[in-house]
Amino acid sequence: MKYSDNPRKVYGKVEIVYADEELSRDVKVAVSANSEISHPAEVYKPPYAPTVKACTMDGNSTMDGTFQMMSDDLVVGWWSGKLADSTGAFANRPYIELSFGMRPIIYWRIIGDEKLNQYPVDFTLQYKRNGSIVKTDTITGNSNVEILVNPKIADITSVRMTILKWSTPNACAKILRFFERVYETYEGKDLLSFEVGEELCSSEGNYNINSDSMTVSIYNEDRKFDKGYLRTLMLLDRKLYPFIGIEQNGEIEYKPLGVFYSDEWDIPQDSQWVKCTATDRMMRLQIKTYVGFPLVENVSLYEIAEDILTKMGLNSTDYIITARLKDFVVDTALLPKTTGWDALQEIANAGLCKVFVDRENRIVINCEDDEPNRSSIEVNPSNMFSYKSNITLTDFSNSVSVDYCEISIKDDVIDVAETEIWLNPYETKTIAIDYTSEVAYPTATSGNASVRIISYESGVNSCTCTLKNNAGTAQTTTITVSGNAIDINTRTVTVRDEESIQLYGVVEYSHPTSELVQSYEQAEYMATLLLNRMKAGEGSITTEWRGNPELETGLIYNCVDRFGDSKKLLCEYNKFSYSGGLKQETRGRKK
What predicted TM-score, i.e. pTM, was given to this entire model? Predict the structure, then answer.
């Protein structure tokens, strides 16, 4: 079946993760003993396979070229300290126990060593609540490297596995995974409806940041959300994964629509349906502080964007930055202390960028002149319910102004902070200090020789520094921050379409000022690009149609109106509505 078929059957499901490796930050591991190389803390973190097929000296390895030597920098999981006997039984039974904040155990996953094909054969699982055993599962005769049990028990604070017999004689126990997310999948009768909105940019078409959102209504079976085993997990930041699917060759193929984090749970006692509202990871950047970018000469917007995202706790797999930003070099780059959200907005303003989260939960920064990919999907009268064209004041302009900043560094050195700090004997303390004005090349000094500054990270208007009291008595010190004064002057470049002005009069647009735009040439380039885009006054086209999740924001698609006029549009917004069937609202703009 295809999404274009009529009639068709569309399926929806939502997976909610109530606890996983990221959300469970309080996990502790205890084991009976360790081999010389053993990493028990890896059993609740990815990856779920060892780095190598380990060569061991227990008689179970051969010189066939497939085995490799181990080292302490490899992923190995937990290796127990004792070997099994010739039958695989353990005289001294090894155990591993995970402790965590109180949570239900719906599923629990155990993975042995898949590369050596070793696994526990006979073992027990004890589920504990504050140290007391409330349930025990005994497994015998297992023959699988990966085991999934389903105890479905509430309010557990630890799980212990004791291994009686191993699959390979004369070998130690090897456990790569001893953990499972708390998650449930809602579909069919358990899923009333859901709605997902994804947006490349705002309806005005500005260069900005957008946060996607979703809502879902799910069945409160046995009152599990307010009285049952999930009641302690109705918290913020639970992960929601919505899917739309269609049957292909007898199986349902689902298309993921992104990753969202719960903002609000609505659990009425007079209804069996629970409603959850969630947003994507971008919204969290509104409450995260970015200390700022220190004054650095000749740095690209790409490097500044990467600095912002890295300091927000993201790694290189969590974001995509267009290489085009490497071409935008800032003579004297600086950013004041702000939120991560506002710092990325500066990148969007200076590089004419759109900042959004894609369906793989990555923050994406694209430029206006990046070439979009094309989709074969067409919205036309045969699959369309409504068609609306809209032009706003920000869609049309024939006079565009862009500011640029001239930054100079004064010879004057000024004091911008003076803070008194008290420390206990031998105490180490990290503090944040805001400056009274922006400065270049700031330095911090301690007024007490017994209190040293052991680390210091500064932007242009704030810093964080770590102090250590080296004395055996309490000490007070004054931290003084000084730097060179910064002078910023703003200039404006205006680009006009005189022919359009003669016909329609002056329609002005002023682009938001950014201190990262620092040359006449860059401002003129931006103004010209904006003018060429806005003088056409194309506006946006919004359609409601039968929908296809393959159409993602950022793709070019074809749209045909009821009069037969065809346009190639850039998909800027989608809203998927599922309630047993699919309806999609799409907004596109001529590229």
Answer: 0.83
